[in-house]
## 1
Amino acid sequence: MAIRIGIFGYGNLGKGTECAVRQNPDLELAAIFTRRDPASISPMTEGVPVVAASEVADWAGKIDVMILCGGSATDLPVQTPELARWFNLVDSFDTHAKIPEHFAAVDAAASAAGTTALISGGWDPGLFSLNRVYAEAILPQGGTYTFWGKGVSQGHSDAIRRIEGVADARQYTVPVPEALERVRAGQRPTLTTRQKHTRECYVAAKPGADLARIEQEIKTMPNYFADYDTTVTFVSLEQLHAEHSGLPHGGSVLRSGLTGWNEEHTATVEYSLKLDSNPEFTASVLAACARAVSRMHAAGQTGCKTILDVPPALLSPLSGEELRRQLL
Amino acid sequence: MAIRIGIFGYGNLGKGTECAVRQNPDLELAAIFTRRDPASISPMTEGVPVVAASEVADWAGKIDVMILCGGSATDLPVQTPELARWFNLVDSFDTHAKIPEHFAAVDAAASAAGTTALISGGWDPGLFSLNRVYAEAILPQGGTYTFWGKGVSQGHSDAIRRIEGVADARQYTVPVPEALERVRAGQRPTLTTRQKHTRECYVAAKPGADLARIEQEIKTMPNYFADYDTTVTFVSLEQLHAEHSGLPHGGSVLRSGLTGWNEEHTATVEYSLKLDSNPEFTASVLAACARAVSRMHAAGQTGCKTILDVPPALLSPLSGEELRRQLL
């Protein structure tokens, strides 16, 4: 019997989840939940019900795992604990600093309800976290480095859009090649924010806007841009949409460690992602996590989990025997 | 209380394990077991007992996890099931084709004895297997590629040493750069053995040996070299020992997958290792696995496991709370 999946929220991530469910024969899309008018949604999957989010509780018992596709700023802190009362679930909560707080809230709700919840699935947090944990457990002496990009940062793009005179914008986060090379070469450098990443902004201004002021406002924006070498390129709205409409992303986690009696040898571990579509890949991770959640729930493991708690075999559709024979 | 570790076999891997234990404050080296005369062994760790392998059963109850450092050809198939009668243990059994058989033998012994055994820890099988499983679970559509090297293959070096007229030899396995680039570029090529790796041999011949015959014997050796583009370089014994005495290795696991409703986007996952010392790094993986085995045993999980069964958090000395706060 296929695992019945619900998608809660139908933006880029929800659509990516719909694609990921389609690729996994043991998963089946049971329903899509939306806060918009359900009649306004046309899912790609034939025949799948679109349900008002307000009616989600009626679906308790009809969904094996709910995949939450809302945002981390305001949606998930409310939705994940709330939905854990009725459903096993997976979310991609990605505000690193607030993970302990989110974990506690979801764990309380899921433990009380006897459901199984996995938070912060995705790639960072998620796969990158896994690789930090594996690499640091194996190489206790050394340095860990995370680089993001080249890829589109939605948060930074939004910040530019809020500047007066900006019609639309797209921001790419780009690792500094020399920094990456130094880490790969085993130098274990101490790197400032500026030395690790640059920020490339493509901006379409409104007619008559003061370009010099916009550029200045971007480059001096605290937290977002002031600590980085930032370049601003003005393009037409048409060009922006034609050349910068994708959502690529990626990055690398590196551990440069030391082995040997006198730590005389270097060992470098690198995990990297290169993604044409960030939301589709994130959704693919969530789909595999949903499989694991379904199995953990069946085994009586309730409460809040993260991918660090999941035996890797549970993510795969293959049996333990198949995994040992084919992939070990 | 520290986890008491036994090292069974004191070659390169055993010495690497001794180094790895030293780097982990929660692990403590309790004894080294050897089939050689214990008096002939001088461990690097001050005060650690060196015990004859034949007396190992006397140490039941005094070792929390035994790390087996013998070879996969003849040692581990016998030693792992035998030692699982008395000890929780970790081995690095790496004959991929015989893993199901080895697993069954160890599982029977460990289940009967109520011990916990983890086989095929290391990096391939081991970390590379993990990455194959994660990547295929997340990206069901696509191709998986494993490249090894540049690094020393002990088996291939030994094969050359058995040729008449060879004094010593070292063989490097080298990935073909163009093949790696094609996979990284998302082309998902079908690659033959010859297209994936080349083999570089450094050979010191005995005085008066027929170099042309040696080169010919190497290049036409079935299984080992005949299917590869192989280069043979003759060097002096001094040069061989001066320039080729290390045991570097590494490699990459890549998954080139497809996402999107019509599989219109590419996602590439790459995990790579660059190791100055293959045995020291392998031992570092075994040490982390020993920590997990100790915890799984304490939780009542007995029988044979692989790293695919281990929740990643169990490999780390940090608590779940610390991991969520610092590394997730």
Note: Chain B has two domains: 3-124+279-326, 132-276.
## 2
Amino acid sequence: MKVAKFGGSSVASAEQFRKVADIVCSDVERRIIVVSAPGKRYKGDVKITDLLIQLADAAIHDEPYDSVLEAIVKRYEEIARGLELSVSSLISHIADDLQQKIDTYRDAPDRLMDAIKASGEDHNARLMAFYLYSLGLEAHYVSPREAGIFVTDEPGNAQILPESYEKLKDLRKRHGVLVIPGFFGYSLTGHIVTFPRGGSDITGSIVAAGVGADVYENFTDVDSIYCVNPAIVDHPRQLKELTYREMRELSYSGFSVFHDEALEPVYKAGIPVCVKNTNNPAAPGTWIVAERNHNDEPVAGIASDVGFCSINISKYLMNREIGFGRKLLQILEDEGISYEHVPSGIDNMSVILRANQLEGEKEKRILDRIQTELQVDEVHIEHGLALVMVVGEGMERTVGVAAKATAAFAEANINIEMINQGSSEVSMMFGVKEEVVKEAVRALYEAYFSSHIHSL
Amino acid sequence: MKVAKFGGSSVASAEQFRKVADIVCSDVERRIIVVSAPGKRYKGDVKITDLLIQLADAAIHDEPYDSVLEAIVKRYEEIARGLELSVSSLISHIADDLQQKIDTYRDAPDRLMDAIKASGEDHNARLMAFYLYSLGLEAHYVSPREAGIFVTDEPGNAQILPESYEKLKDLRKRHGVLVIPGFFGYSLTGHIVTFPRGGSDITGSIVAAGVGADVYENFTDVDSIYCVNPAIVDHPRQLKELTYREMRELSYSGFSVFHDEALEPVYKAGIPVCVKNTNNPAAPGTWIVAERNHNDEPVAGIASDVGFCSINISKYLMNREIGFGRKLLQILEDEGISYEHVPSGIDNMSVILRANQLEGEKEKRILDRIQTELQVDEVHIEHGLALVMVVGEGMERTVGVAAKATAAFAEANINIEMINQGSSEVSMMFGVKEEVVKEAVRALYEAYFSSHIHSL
């Protein structure tokens, strides 16, 4: 049994719906379909979700919203017409449903926003089920409530409740193709609550784990995952296979394929993921699995992200002071700061964190606290740091991986501000100045994937 | 004004005493002399301090100690005779003093051990002062109590009390050459308390800081500090100059030149240190200073140490869990464990620590606590790790330092288990298996100091 999730661009138009139907019909194992809201059809197009946010904003601020509501309904109507479906009842249902949600949650803006946003996926799932049914398939729309997707009650940041998985098992007993909207679940008090960013991927992952699927197929608009950001390197190498851990490291820093939470349910259930292209389903796609044979390719990919800073602290005899590191991290925890890495020498320690956490007075306050409470010799912040991650399960047993990276930096005349590689880890982190991050990524790509001239 | 400390081998015999006298007489700025107890005169010789420990042990256990007491007195007598001093009163004073200390502290073994150990330096300082005086110098023995070296009252682990520095200033007003015994101070309750390992260096450093010396000269038996352990690399390069921070990183891991606490007082007072050879005082020695010009030589030295282990922890979505690192360090702190480095990836963290801290049940208990309290996916310990440190103030601004190191490892076919280099740090840490640590050090020495063929 396969669970197939189709992303926004895969369900953006009638033409895309037809591709999805072909994909579903071509394999009887594709028994559960999770759909996003209609995404962009072309560059510059507006996603339904963005229109829905406009709608909710207007309603919350008591501004007129008729035209945006109309634009939303029209998107579905266009899809339905393109599929030659009789649509009047469905379309009037959408308009009524949106209006009813606005009326219900007029005094609860967070709830209103969540309910309206979630409707994008919900209506699209209904439309998809209707279309598949019209093709002669036994297709059923299944709401997240019926499926059993129960979540915590924090608008916009739903977390799955463990009891959901027991309920989701029952979907195995259902006949036909089930179409479930992505992006949201229901709280135990009956409210619609959306998942954080990447929500439809999370739904697909939860459903796949719940039913114990053989594979979780994630249909998108690229043939595969690339080993490096294609916006930095032209036509980079495609990945056939990578592990959950590699994917997580990559998605964390600059790879927008999956939100980092999305893979947790399938990771825990040990269900392989296949990323495929709705527009070219014959391409093999990229498999995300528990283990891969990495003898040939110790490095899976290179990721990067900007916007980091480093708090650098020095104190003579720091390393003899039991509790120093713990007290430092306690200050950050008190201030609600999460950090990425803590490289250290004998008498100094750096804390790498996302700089956007230090807005306003916070930076000064944290530096003052470190100075006063830890009695350090010196503390200062270095801004404008980028992190570049070389990711690969095979690295830890391979001689020369670090040598290739550092030689590539040296040849490109890039200074390494920081290096961090732990025992049994799947990534090697380099800190560089933001200005040189693209050069750094290109240099690493050259070293690992492009040429063998530089190999040591 | 210079404070000159003479180590054990520099004051081991009459011949060595003469060299010290020549050194003292050759520079009128050498106004304060700190001496160790007589050390080894040849390979296989016994240090006075070891004899004193035997004496104290025997007295504590009510065993006969006449022969060892006699051997101790005889060492001083030989030195005195070799210097053609009239010695009878001095020698009988030593025997009486040791006997009196045994009688006084018969019921306080810790005190007895400290008092007896400290006597090695004390009697040697008296003898040195007497000898210098006999040469016509205005030399005075000054006891630590008279000098103002007041310390905490923990036998064998004295820490200087801040008020000492005020008192030590008065030594500037004294005339002649002052001879102070190293290794111990007096608690405020009047007891002799010895410093931890490297105690005479600590005394010299404290006195130099207290009197605001122009330089703290540390006389030993080598011409200079080497850039790498001569037991691993034959005839390594001598260092002309290094910074306090570099010295501290080096002495921490495998360089036995200074105990890591010894330099703190001069570091804080900004007093330069010169390491010189008593047997070859014309050699320029090695200077330890606050800043050095490191344009030519970004790397100062290479140090290594064995006996480390790594606790490796992984947990999916670890990096989203605010407080995870703090809780982990809290467990270690509860268990009285100090750690060296905490390299981390997105979902994993390693803690590097000295393995001798995990004796007995502790290892299992710590792993259990991490598993239970932090709900990690996996935790295990990797034993047999060595750390190799590349140390140098210039590294952080120099492209290619890391490349040289990692290329050297790759060429020597050595796998790097860990790398740790923080922003604005003075060292780069590599973790390797203990079996290959010497090869690793030699490979790095080749890369940085020996040849320029491999340079990038």
Note: Confidence is low (pLDDT under 50) at residues 452-456 of chain B.
## 3
Amino acid sequence: MITPYFLENFWGDKNNGFDVLYHNMKHGQISSKELSDFIRERATIEEAYSRSMTKLAKTASNCSQLGTFAPVWDVFKQSTEKLAACHMELVRKLQELIKEVQKYVEEQAKNHKKTKEEVASTLEAVQNIQSVSQALQKSKENYVNKTLEQERMRKEGATQRDLDKAGLKVKKATETYKSYVEKYANAKTEFEQRMTETAQKFQGIEEEHVLRMQEIIHSYCQSVEETHIQIGEVQEEFVKNMENTSVESLIQKLAESKGTGKERPGPIEFEECNVSIATEGANPEKGKPLPYQADGEIKTQIP
Amino acid sequence: MITPYFLENFWGDKNNGFDVLYHNMKHGQISSKELSDFIRERATIEEAYSRSMTKLAKTASNCSQLGTFAPVWDVFKQSTEKLAACHMELVRKLQELIKEVQKYVEEQAKNHKKTKEEVASTLEAVQNIQSVSQALQKSKENYVNKTLEQERMRKEGATQRDLDKAGLKVKKATETYKSYVEKYANAKTEFEQRMTETAQKFQGIEEEHVLRMQEIIHSYCQSVEETHIQIGEVQEEFVKNMENTSVESLIQKLAESKGTGKERPGPIEFEECNVSIATEGANPEKGKPLPYQADGEIKTQIP
């Protein structure tokens, strides 16, 4: 149970407590719209970040497929794609949350409309005590003036007829004054009663409002935290993949994919021409390559 | 000590092992430039994210300062600003790292230039074994042709003078062939020796290159991880601040800042006009307000 702060603090001789509390309630609608806008902007930022990460992943996949380092780009690409996905997942969650906030915004507007009707009698009581107080003040002034007027006439020796007339006026002013004293007492009772109820109602509305806002923020935090954990996992996996990509494995992979062969050039010895064999077949030596033969195409050049 | 993969796998009868290894080394320059570009792009993404967060913090600080929820925006603003700062700190670290990568890129280019000079004799040995192999093949063919020509002439009963002439040609062709067999043996020895050294050198260069790249990636990961931890702390602080912002404290804060007063309207009773006092002074009742007086200005209206 929360201290009834509103019940305690919105009286005072200026009597605009009701006005302040009513407007405070209405500000709640601005707050919930602003919270919705804030989350939407965050979602937009996360979406842009995610798209940039997807582009960065493409950069990684467009990197040279040549050289010893080439296989590492695949690790970069995969990790960056996962990072993009994490942020896109956050966008999806925030968009869901925005829908919930929108629902609350509408619900809140409806509740405020209902509340406006419910506090209409309080507003009347406020306006009533304001006008009755004013009238009471005027009737009191009139009563004092009429009484002094009668006294003045008495001292100046006015006729009995004039004195009777003035007495009648005093009697009438007294009655009016007394009736306003009575009306004020009623207006005061009514006002206090209504204000007490309404101040409590307004505090209840604010409590409910702040609670709902806190729930939304809690959801927001949860989504952000989940994403943070996922990003941490992607990063951890990246580090692990990098650790598993040893220098030796990269050297080996290159040797396997680009290797030109394991055989060194063989020895070549002088072969005497055996005329009888050579003339038997159709020059069998012709076309048989040397064990090590340069075909003239592979002329190694350093660019 | 890493297995000498390059020494084992870059022979083969096509003899372009040197060429492949040399180009592989040169690809290393592309890789390091690409890594630098990748980190630069990441830094650009982080910078854009940070600037968007700064903008979002401004959105939070521009949110309504009215209503019960208003103080919460300050928590949003501070947290979002800190988030922006975390990402900007990452940008700073990545920019430092890019400078280091640039240094490596330059160093690497210099080393490759030096290596090009150092392997020049290997290139020569490659080109030599290529041309000697070709010449050997040709001289062998010539020797066979000349021998068969002499045999053909003998069978066709050529003059002694012509046979002597043909014999001289065979002798010359034999000498040339033999000399190329010898030259080939030398070229082969030279080539094997040079290629053995150079393949090892190239592997050493690749090992060094991959290690440097891994160091850079390690630095990159470290910066990303540090930022991740900082972001986690900011998020945790935000959650804690939200938890500390109780509904009661917000209600109390509003009551304190917007409260209109604690005093309820007082009772007003009928006051009889005391003529003797009233006429003594100059109408002292006039101007003295009622304990509860509506001044007509505060006319509570619901908008």
Note: Residues 7-120+196-255 of chain B form a domain with the Substrate Binding Domain Of Dnak; Chain:A; Domain 2 fold (CATH 1.20.1270.60).
## 4
Amino acid sequence: MSDFTPPVSDFRFLIHNVIGLDTVADLPAFSETSPDLVDAILEEAGKFASSVLAPINRTGDQEGARLLEDGTVRTASGWKEAYAQFCEGGWQGISAPEAEGGMGLPILLGAAVAEMWQASNMAFALCPMLTAGAIEALGAHGSEDQRVLYLSRMISGEWTGTMNLTEPQAGSDLSKVRSMAVPTGDGTYKITGQKIFITYGDHDMTENIVHLVLARTPDAPAGVKGISLFIVPKFIVSDSGEIGARNDVTCVSLEHKLGIHASPTAVLSFGDQGGATGYLIGEEGKGLAYMFTMMNNARLAVGQQGVAISERAYQQALEYARNRKQGRDPQTGDDAPIIIHGDVQRMLMRMRSSTEAARALSLYAAAQLDLAHHLEDDKARANAQARADLLIPLVKAWSTDLGVDNASLGVQVHGGMGFIEETGAAQHLRDARIAPIYEGTNGIQALDFIGRKVTRDKAGALGALIADMRATIADVTNGDAKQAAGTLSNALDELGKSTAIVIERCSADDRMMQVLATPYARQAALCISGWLMLRAMSVASQNGVSDSFQAAKLKSCQFFFDQLLPEATFMATQIKNCTSIELHETQPLF
Amino acid sequence: MSDFTPPVSDFRFLIHNVIGLDTVADLPAFSETSPDLVDAILEEAGKFASSVLAPINRTGDQEGARLLEDGTVRTASGWKEAYAQFCEGGWQGISAPEAEGGMGLPILLGAAVAEMWQASNMAFALCPMLTAGAIEALGAHGSEDQRVLYLSRMISGEWTGTMNLTEPQAGSDLSKVRSMAVPTGDGTYKITGQKIFITYGDHDMTENIVHLVLARTPDAPAGVKGISLFIVPKFIVSDSGEIGARNDVTCVSLEHKLGIHASPTAVLSFGDQGGATGYLIGEEGKGLAYMFTMMNNARLAVGQQGVAISERAYQQALEYARNRKQGRDPQTGDDAPIIIHGDVQRMLMRMRSSTEAARALSLYAAAQLDLAHHLEDDKARANAQARADLLIPLVKAWSTDLGVDNASLGVQVHGGMGFIEETGAAQHLRDARIAPIYEGTNGIQALDFIGRKVTRDKAGALGALIADMRATIADVTNGDAKQAAGTLSNALDELGKSTAIVIERCSADDRMMQVLATPYARQAALCISGWLMLRAMSVASQNGVSDSFQAAKLKSCQFFFDQLLPEATFMATQIKNCTSIELHETQPLF
């Protein structure tokens, strides 16, 4: 088992010095978010993550969640107690409005805290992550009664929430949802159908679970416009909030998964006894649109899982490399830890540098969401929203791909011990592997980026961002950062060329868009996070941070520009070659 | 569960048309290796792999190998029967000399066949793979008596072999081996010590197991020169070959691993009852040198595991992508399989193209081993050996890295189903993850390449290979291949520059060598397999192969040059940047 050391100093550095807490804290909504408060929350969350969640990560993996004979799910040992402490701390409501019982803190801070939950125990953290999604959907579209009855109890963590979207035939393509919702005449609906891949679809940590369910009303049009969103509580709740009879929804099985064993992934059956009682959220036919309102936060949260697992895998690999003796020190001839080897250092630096870059990108995107919600000026708010929309598919896809790569490198650093489950390094790889898949596969993220976010927008939002990046480059004056600024400037030239190809070739050619999506999104992610690394480098070469933090940060940044950013050129070549070769233009590859 | 279709047509194409069977079959040793015989063996092996080994791959993973209370190991259901059939086919001895009961066929053909064993069932195929290593070590260094007593029974498969190298403190650094071998005066030794990570260290498929064990004799010098190699049979064998008493070696536990569950990875304890009887192979103090004689074949075999798992993962992903309907055909509006999406095709092409390139490289390296063993001219033999030595660390490192990447892509193509163990896609990733680690980590392979194979040799063997590659480029005349030849030529220019940096900077700087090793080895692997893809392209654009094979091969090659080979430029940039930045020259990164 490995310890988890919360990367609080990097969060503080990024929030205060790179992202600029002031831009967020100056928002009227966050007038009470002082730098001291931010630091105190980070410390407190770090403590909870390392002392409560991290110690049960490995045992949870071994034990897993189990479906009992009575059809209920038992979580792994320690889960229920940890969840109770999580609620006591008020953590579920960190970014929820104070008026509804939340802490009312910026999404920026909530994101930093969430990364620590995910790093310490991804299987546990999925429960609050899904509840947060349900809170957001219900908060935006629920009636006053629904808010009173469900929302406050979800924000407090008293009840958890689930998202019931997927069915066996309806995964990436939700237009194929078949679950039915038939009005009963008393304002409620009878829900029937089967939903799969329902995270924490059942568990024993709370008295009730609030399922949000996509289903089709009778006579609804085919496709996405016929889908509505319903509240289906596990136990019926009376108007006064008392828990009543069991609703007609049962967990029929749990999936046997590669990783996140302690997170119960349920098959839920609705209406085996005639129909589960469901309550319509908002209007009929708008279910999918409502889901979209929570998509940015959910994708950001999954992206952070990639950052988190990278951080955890890095810490464990670093610890092992410092302690495992094998071979000799060339100077002294003494037994030496494997970290002295340049190749081991390269692996560790890949992990560290990419993790820090992806963290910077995710926190920057989170800050854009705060600005998009709370800036006073309409135009400025729209711009921030456009920037968040642009960045979030990159956060999701790039960070989760990195999560897999870094967890795999973590195994490699361990040598043979990495393949042995007791070591715990392999668990990170198994856990990490789901993140590129769920909440929209990374292929879908890349398509969202190249299509909705760049091509349809004629690169407006991207162009504005690149202008900001160019301004940073022009502002950099000190030595090492100056050289990095030049490297980034060249990378932006190439991104400009790729973007021109994309705009020209993809606007009327969906197939070309699909082929270019993945390398283009990766090229953009590398450049934009390079920008944030340049800002970090620029600040860190000045001062105001501890010497050891400064030295480490400068090495991470330098490594990024020397060793990682050049992948953007590789991606640019892939893009160029796709369009220059006749074969690819005219013929599918299969 | 997924079916396995043996890629016999690609083997045939590569062996006959690209590697050139004639260069191997013309060797006097292989005068009977006719093209028809080669095809017949490939067909037969393919049948066995797909009908006997593939069907128990998934069940073996679920069931695993188990250590029983009596200290013996029970293999998974079907294992014993499959192994018996494997022996009946004579497959263990495919490349062993006919004089010792083998088939006496080229390593080239043995390698193709071995890839099919690994692709159909990696956990099973590890047993013959380890036995082959033991056969080679014993064949090269065993006494006449030892050959009679053990070797023939191992070649027939009647007994299996193991390699006992690793101890808890002695992994990559075998100089730290502590197991002891004390002479008893009757020519035998008493062996004591604990060995870990012993593949098929115990099992129930054969009556006896021949353990080859590294141990230290009393008064032996410290370090690698004090280590000797011993035969320690599980059951003592009389001079007439009768199986006698149980030797003092016991399996004390099996590792709980990420993958290859059906391959028992044993902790073996030698000498709990006073000492296991061991028989010295060759001379004292030469144990590690003897191990080195089998290293090329063993590393080639592990490299092939990477190719194999890539092939298997590709086939399964392709099948899924062709059948999983999600979304609509943009032309017809009908439900469409996900393979219509450009991004899915990109993932599948990455898998297919890299698999074919890595296969070509591994078979080419295998052919060099045949030439190195059997060419008549001393100089030509030495040149072939130098080329094999040069290529094999690349085969091992690059192919096994690809194995992990491709298995991971295979999971991704499956979407959510890929994360569910029942699908079987995740097993490939779990199985693949060991190959970059064992038989010398990929970091060690890269160091071997950059150090022993390039720098020490002042790029002599590499230079000769590059000259051959340039000659191919000059010979290419037809259209598409001509363009690819130009691309490869540029890549070779860059490889030349990287090599110049390596020779100049690494000859006297071990640390720099360690830092450059991984990107340099990868750059070289991409270029050299690119050469084989160019040869494949050149042949395939002519004729003599079926139209559908030809079309698919041309697409694979085209994709390699457009989308995969450009990674070599990325690696070249990493190398250049390592040496140009002051920080990296003078300071360790940690």
Note: Residues 8-155 of chain A form a domain with the Butyryl-Coa Dehydrogenase, subunit A; domain 1 fold (CATH 1.10.540.10).
